[in-house]
Amino acid sequence: MAARKGLGELLVRQNLINMDQLEHAKREQRNHGGRLTTALVKMGYVNESDLAEFLGQQYKVPTIDLSNFELDPEAIKLVGRQVCEKYSVIPVSKAGRNLVVAFADPSNIYVKDDLAILTRHKIEPVVASEFAINNAIEKYYSLDNKFQSIVSEIEDSDEAFISNTQQADVVVDEVESGEDGPVIKFVNVMLSEAIKARASDIHIEPYEKRFRIRFRIDGILVEKIQPPSGAASAIASRVKIMSKMDIGERRRPQDGRLKVRMKNGVEIDFRVNCTPTLFGEKIVLRILDKSNLQVDLTKLGMEPDDLENFKKALYLPQGMILITGPTGSGKTTTIYSALGELNNPETNISTAEDPVEF
After folding, report:
1. Neighbours of 320 (CB within 10 A)
2. In this predicted model, what pLDDT tens digit does every residue of 243-269 receive, in sequence order?
3. What are phi and psi of 236, to 5 degrees?
4. Following DSSP, what letter does each residue of 28-51 receive, concatenated?
5. How big is the chain by its Cα radius of gyration, in Å?
6. How far apart are CA 236 and CA 282, in angstroms?
7. Which fold has domain 47-141?
8. Residues 323-328: contacts with CB within 8 Å, 24+ apart?
9. Residue 26, CB-side half-sphere exposure with 13 Å CA sphere
10. Single pTM value for the model
11. 201-206/122-127 β-pairing
12. How far is it, in rounded angstroms, from Cα 238 to Cα 227?
């Protein structure tokens, strides 16, 4: 209780409240329980943002605005909802064995120690208002059951994913599905369903009151999975983490790549683009399945005369060939098939590609 008393006196000393307000708040705390800071805010004696800033300065801990920050799903799954509600904390991000956690009251060092034991991570505290933490708990943890319901409705897939955690061309150990959080499972199911549907793209699109996920199949966008409302930011964060993007950057476009391996050993690359919009981040994943890349010109479906003319143009010593068409029309396949036709031990070929697809 000494720490609480000291905190109240510090608030008085900083002219954030007066002694009468402090005594009223203490009576409220004794009658109804909870934290002294909660009582002060509830009674309107101090503003939450001012209180958070004061606590950050007092305990030399950074402050964070949770409303402008996307929380890391992998960090969220390390601490259960009951623990977060009990101590008014929420995990923010995870880097190696370091876990950033937002505290409404950073003066309680015992909570920090308990979280370190619970998560087996080094806890790096930041300060946020209790109201913001409660909103974040409701936002991120209430999605769990919705995600679980959607995942269970989709037929269990024989495919499992090994996602990259270092760089785009590295595949690491398989993630055990039993340890995955609902958001991770949902994203894995989304990728699996897109691959099974032979989609060329996945579009994750936020709107004012809803968001949707569409697959481009045979050139046509089709809504295949109905995600839970309010889950856009959690799904976007997971995809950005897998693609090695900066999850804290939401104002500028970003590009990334990720790779998954199916249980049958087939590796599939995804090129990922994230663009800020009025209602959130729009993400497009282009599926680059090397196993479906046909590099034989004779199997592209050209008429014999067209194929002959195309080959003649390929073997000219100079000039330019323009290959154009809409998404999914086979431009990349045609280009790589042409390179395959020209490639032989006596020829040196260099390509300038942006981005490199295969």
Report:
1. 6
2. 989 888 888 999 999 888 777 677 888
3. -60, -40
4. HHHHH-S-HHHHHHHTTSS-HHHH
5. 27
6. 8
7. GMP Synthetase; Chain A, domain 3 (3.30.300)
8. 326/219, 327/200, 327/201, 327/216, 327/219, 328/200, 328/201, 328/216, 328/218, 328/219
9. 15
10. 0.54
11. unpaired
12. 14
Q: For the chain, give every domain's residue range.
A: 1-45, 47-141, 145-291, 293-342
Strand partners, 138: none
3-state DSSP assignment of residue 230: coil
Q: Which CATH number fits domain 145-291: 3.40.50.720, 1.10.3720.10, 3.30.450.90, 3.30.1330.80?
A: 3.30.450.90
What is the side-by-side strand order in the sheet with 211-217?
Answer: 220-225, 211-217, 201-206, 280-288, 267-277, 254-261
Enter the tokens of residue 84.
Answer: 């977060």
Evaluate if residue 303 carries a pLDDT over 70: yes
Question: What letter represents residue 70's amino acid?
Answer: E
pLDDT in tens, 69-109: 878 888 888 998 889 988 889 999 998 899 999 998 888 88
3-state secondary structure of 5: helix
Q: Which among 208, 57, 42 has a CA at the least distance from the CA of 131?
A: 42
